Amino acid sequence: MTPFIETFTGTKFQPLEPHVGTIYIEDIAHALSQQCRFSGHTRRFYSVAEHSCRVSALLSSWGEDEDIQLWGLLHDASEAYLVDLPTPLKTHPDIGEGYRRAERTLMRAICERFELPQREPSRVAIADAVMLATEVRDLMPNVKAHWEALVVRPDEVGISPWLPRVAEEVFLKRFFSLKGRRT
């Protein structure tokens, strides 16, 4: 039997063998709004959903088209089903290889479901890095030696984290404004 999870909408979802027809934006928004960035090691709760909204909004402020903004909103959507692993674990050869393979498979299904190009636009990765630098500045203890690899500057706008229900609501509103229809 293929492993499955029950989602917020009551869907039986197989994260290792995802079926496009079982991917719902409501599940993604709800799950990401309940998950804290940095494995919860922030000074205040800060959800993956809020992070995703901020990446998408940053892309908008840069004048990127709506498909790229939508990619920014959904760039961490696989974490709604697989949860997130901190980057040091995700990139570790003993731990991360299977996770990264499952994440790639799931993101292909998510891209198909929401009619996005299979390849993440480079501007999304840049906006994600800017948000990371901003989050480190505003939400983490920010021990300089831990973050020497950060080469981008944080956004000028500071982060005051939203409650999970607000993050879920903003995520869904952003999605539907970019998609233009319910999916």
Structure description:
- The structure is a single chain.
- The protein contains eight helices and two strands; from the N terminus they run ββαααααααα.
- The longest helix has 18 residues.
- It is mainly alpha-helical.
Defining traits:
single chain, 183 residues, mainly alpha, Hypothetical protein af1432, 8 helices, 2 strands
Percent in strands: under 5%
Mean pLDDT: 94
Low-confidence stretches: none
- Sheet with the most strands, sense and barrel status: 2 strands, antiparallel
What is the count of structural domains? 1
Number of strands: 2
N-to-C CA distance: 29 Å
Sheet with most strands: strand arrangement: 1-2
User: What's the shape?
Assistant: globular
CATH topology: Hypothetical protein af1432
Looking at CATH, the homologous superfamily is Hypothetical protein af1432
The CATH architecture term is: Orthogonal Bundle
CATH class: Mainly Alpha
Total helical segments = 8
Task: Give the gist of this structure.
The protein is 51% helix and 2% strand. The protein has 183 residues and is an all-alpha fold.
Note the topology.
Layout: E1 5-6, E2 12-13, H1 25-34, H2 48-61, H3 66-74, H4 79-82, H5 87-90, H6 96-113, H7 122-139, H8 164-179
